[in-house]
Amino acid sequence: MMHFARNDTSILGNWWWTVDRWLLGAVVLLGALGLLLTTTASPPVAERINVDSFHFVKKQAFMLAPALFTIIGVSLLNLKQIRRLALVVFVGALVLMVAAILFGTEIKGATRWISLGGLTIQPSEFAKPAFAVLAGWILAARRMGEDVPGYAISAALCVLVVGLLALQPDIGQAFVVCSIWFTQLFIAGLSMSFVIFAVLGGLAALVAAYYIFPHVATRIDRFLDPQAHDSYQIDKAMEAFQSGGIMGRGPGEGIVKQSLPDGHADFIFAVAGEEFGLFACMFIVAIFVFVVVRGLSRLLQDNDMFVVLAATGLIVQFALQALVNMASTLSLIPTKGMTLPFISYGGSSLLALALGMGMLLALTRRRPEIASWRD
């Protein structure tokens, strides 16, 4: 366990006494729970594809070390370095998103992944936290009186990312990006007329997505009328929750998980419900709520507009991703293939979330004095 004296002026010593250790601890706890749930949820999936029973467990454990290194390494950076990192990651992610659309492997009708050096990467996962920081930077410059067309530039970046996501297609991620941008605009000082226009525009976009993208229409129709459409996945997920009850069947004792598609990934929350029960699920939800509330509470004490906007965008991304995953698993909204942060299996998602959480920890670190957003 790390321990540093309060008068330790080293890089790590200064980091230890300025970073939000409670927030860091909650994220580490989520990662540990993710490995535990992957261990119990993934063997049936591995057996169905004829690989070693602990194939996914080993890969997830292997990715946890670089994820933790990323969180700590990025959280050591100052505000200027965070902006530079976000710019580099954003440009790189956009290039890889284009490459994925043109040359990527199609999986379940979508081209969201690209293979690099034997690793399969989903570039859009990295675009989200980078966009949150860049949009916050640009809007903060506009808000602080700089001669920068912040609204126009941030809107152009949002349209660019959303356009590439629509081509993959990945409407769920596009919704998250739009939500990040809209929240930041709202905090930066939107007029009420623009708020109404944005809400109406979002509803119009949802209707358009229903008619343009068949998979969106299928998921919405299945949600509205489960009896008339194939709802095998969500039926199995609900059966898993019912099987687990309040206390769960016990680790490794799940029965429904044997036939639950993507039980190690998109539907891992259902496996948690079956094997560990209602209380365990409530505990997981409580951790996510703690991370969100803790992050927002740190911002209440910060007057730096860039920090407030960028960190809020990162929190919105984290919260929405968790909310969409759990709500779709519980059949509260149409199903959407979105991972549960730090818990679902997935290397790209884990590293991208680690990047975003490292940025959030860097932005919310205690600073001796309020720094200018330019520093």
Description:
A hairpin with a 2-residue loop joins strand 1 and strand 2. A 3-stranded antiparallel β-sheet has the order 1-2-3, with helices on one face. With 375 residues, the chain is mainly alpha-helical. The chain has one domain (15-363). The chain starts with 10 loop residues before the first helix and ends in a 12-residue tail after the last helix. Helix content is 69%, strand content 3%. It is an enzyme of class 2 (transferase).
Number of strands: 3
Overall pLDDT, averaged?
85
Q: Number of helical runs?
A: 13
Strand content: under 5%
Side-by-side strand order of the widest sheet: 1-2-3
Order of helices and strands: HHHHEEEHHHHHHHHH
CA radius of gyration is 21 Å
Number of domains: 1
| Gap from first CA to last CA | 32 Å
Helix content: 55-70%
Main location: membrane
EC number: 2.4.99.28
Membrane topology: Multi-pass membrane protein
GO molecular function, one term: peptidoglycan glycosyltransferase activity
Which key features would you list for this structure?
mainly alpha, 3-stranded antiparallel beta sheet, glycosyltransferase, FtsW, disordered C terminus, 375 residues
